[in-house]
């Protein structure tokens, strides 16, 4: 005799959905009940709490205030505010006018507090010319970042050396110029030269150049500027 077949229980998405909905609503009802108990308990405790007494405003006159307590050993005497004090009125006494000699003179600010470099101007006053010491600045770095490069304002043509003219020599000299913050050339150096005979003439001309100063961060800065000085015989003919 064979045993009857037992159909295995099925457990799938449908059963999971039924279990999910059942436990979701059960948890929601429990959470609402807990919040209701907490909030209701707070308001019940507030209802049974004794109310605070209302504030009463009392107006007092200055004469009704108690005297202030003394402070320190050198305290002022306590005055009873109920006893009014009589004001003391003095009698003004006439004061004679000060007699000033017509020959006396008053010192001005320069005589009262003289300055080391004050010079009389001949009209009773003084002129003050302070000495401003400009700090000596060293040459700038070989590369200085700038927002605006210097531009030539005054250009001087170098003098052709007489010896080079007689020997029919030509050449180019590259000169490095130190342009300061006001556009003046402070120093000139030879970078490269085709013939040393032109070096002095190129340096002398470069020192007479004038530039607009270079600018960085809205302020003038000192920079080096390299310029070529070309010496050609065709320009002399």
Molecular structure report:
The radius of gyration is 51 Å and the shape is flat. It starts with 12 loop residues before the first helix and ends in a 6-residue tail after the last strand. Strands 5-4-9 form a three-stranded antiparallel sheet, with helices on one face. A two-stranded antiparallel ribbon has the order 1-2. It has a two-stranded antiparallel ribbon with strand order 3-6. The protein has helices spanning 13-48, 109-112, 162-166, 199-206; strands spanning 118-120, 126-128, 152-154, 171-179, 185-193, 210-211, 214-216, 219-221, 223-231. With 237 residues, the chain is α+β, with helices and mostly antiparallel strands. The longest helix has 36 residues, at 13-48. It is built from four helices and nine strands, in the order H-H-E-E-E-H-E-E-H-E-E-E-E. A hairpin with a 5-residue loop joins strand 4 (171-179) and strand 5. Among the domains are: 18-48; 152-235, TolA/TonB C-terminal domain. Helix content is 22%, strand content 19%.
Summarize this, please?
The chain is of the alpha+beta class.
Name the CATH class of the domain at 152-235.
Alpha Beta
- Nearest-integer average pLDDT: 77
* Gyration radius, in Å: 51 Å
**How are strands sequenced across the largest beta sheet?**
5-4-9
Q: Sum up the overall morphology in one term.
A: flat
Helix content: 10-25%
Number of helices: 4
- Spell out the helices and strands N to C: HHEEEHEEHEEEE
Largest sheet: 3 strands, antiparallel
Give descriptors for this structure:
two-stranded antiparallel sheet, 9 strands, flat, TolA/TonB C-terminal domain, 19% strand, alpha+beta, three-stranded antiparallel beta sheet, 237 residues, 4 helices, 22% helix
């Amino acid at each position: 005799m064979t045993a009857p077949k037992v159909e295995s229980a099925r457990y799938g998405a449908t059963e999971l959905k039924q279990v999910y909905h059942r436990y979701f609503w059960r948890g929601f009802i429990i959470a609402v009940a807990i919040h209701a108990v907490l909030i209701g308990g707070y308001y019940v405790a507030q209802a049974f709490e004794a109310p605070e007494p209302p504030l009463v405003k009392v107006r007092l006159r200055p004469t009704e205030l108690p005297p202030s307590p003394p402070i320190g050993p050198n305290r002022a005497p306590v005055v009873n505010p109920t006893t009014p004090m009589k004001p003391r009125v003095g009698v003004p006494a006439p004061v004679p006018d000060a007699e000033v000699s017509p020959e006396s003179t008053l010192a001005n600010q320069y005589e009262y507090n003289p300055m080391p470099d004050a010079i009389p101007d001949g009209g009773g006053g003084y002129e003050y010319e302070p000495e401003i010491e400009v700090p000596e600045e060293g040459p700038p770095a070989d590369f200085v970042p700038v927002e605006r490069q210097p531009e030539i304002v005054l250009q001087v043509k170098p003098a052709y050396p007489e010896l080079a003219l007689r020997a029919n020599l030509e050449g180019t000299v590259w000169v490095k110029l130190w342009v300061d913050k006001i556009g003046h050339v402070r120093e000139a150096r030879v970078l490269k030269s085709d013939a040393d005979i032109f070096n002095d003439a190129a340096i002398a001309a470069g020192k007479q150049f004038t530039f607009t100063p270079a600018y960085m961060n809205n302020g003038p800065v000192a920079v080096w500027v390299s310029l070529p000085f070309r010496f050609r015989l065709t320009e002399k003919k």
